[in-house]
Specification:
Structural class: alpha/beta
Helix content: 25-40%
Mean pLDDT: 76
Number of helices: 9
Low-confidence stretches: 1-23, 252-268
Shape: globular
Amino acid sequence: MMHWQHEPMRDFYLNNPRSLAFFSNYTLGLTDDPNCQNGIDRAASLIQSWVQHRNVKTFCVAHGGEFYLIDASKSGNAKTTLQDISALKKQGRSSGWLTTLPRSKWRTNPTADLFIALDLDTAPVTDQQFAFELAYGNLANRRFDQPIQLIVFGNGRAGYNIDHTDIDAEPAIKLIDLPSCDSASLSEWPIQRLHFEEANIEKAQAEAKRLLADRELVCVRTRAFQSDQEIQLAIQHAVQKVFGQPKVTSEAVSMSHLPAGRYNTVYFASPEDVQHHAERIKAAKAGEVFGPMPCDITTSSAGMPEHISLFGFTDTEPNIIGIAYLRKPNETLFHIKADGRFKGFAEKIAHDL
């Protein structure tokens, strides 16, 4: 992860409200749709849902590292449009890598209401494969200036990579809760290929690969827990077994917003820790450098939404373990990120959970 004070995060706060800081995000995996057994069908169904139920007028599709702008303001057919895109030959270099750099380093216009990445050559099966591909997979096919990225794989699995600084998890979970839609028997929408101004793709690739090399991501399913409090105790117990002592943990939440504050529960964080975190965010918005988070672990919960099959939260700084969890009636799914001085500990914590 990148520090709050680094250029990409400052770009977001100071220059463009739609800019996305690389790797400052969370992922939401959708439950499988039995009526969509391949990527084109699943993407078409989801796009039609966004157009019909969220009034999306334009969307951008990434395929093979190239981007295509779609005008959906008139009636059209998502499936035939996607089939046309998948048949187009690649003309240039994969420009998606450029968007991992600070936004001032690259330019392209116009923007779209929704971004869709077609990763048709990838077919994740396990939780860990699914989580990795949503968070870090095929970076050439991503556009990191979009708050919400819909990612669809060849086997019909789909999910979202969402910028935590632009939209928080609870409203996003509600936003993407859409009914399935069949493609109408209409002609395809107009397709416009997008072009980036020339920039150093090799530099972007090198930086992204450096960050990935220092990343550990583990998913594990456990028994069902009855409450967030019980899960927090289980996390602390596992952490103490691994490290031989407790670790300062903050931002443990039950994802229930209140008018008086962001969350209704914060565990294992002193008032001083909470104040320190607030001051860091204030400093970042002003473009100032502030110290690191006063904790070793952050945790986050997505609650128990029926349409979500995986929740991953990787918006933690380097050298901090990020633990996200998704409660289901019969089990709990943990998503654990570790890097830097804690790389190698995610697997150990998962084993003790």
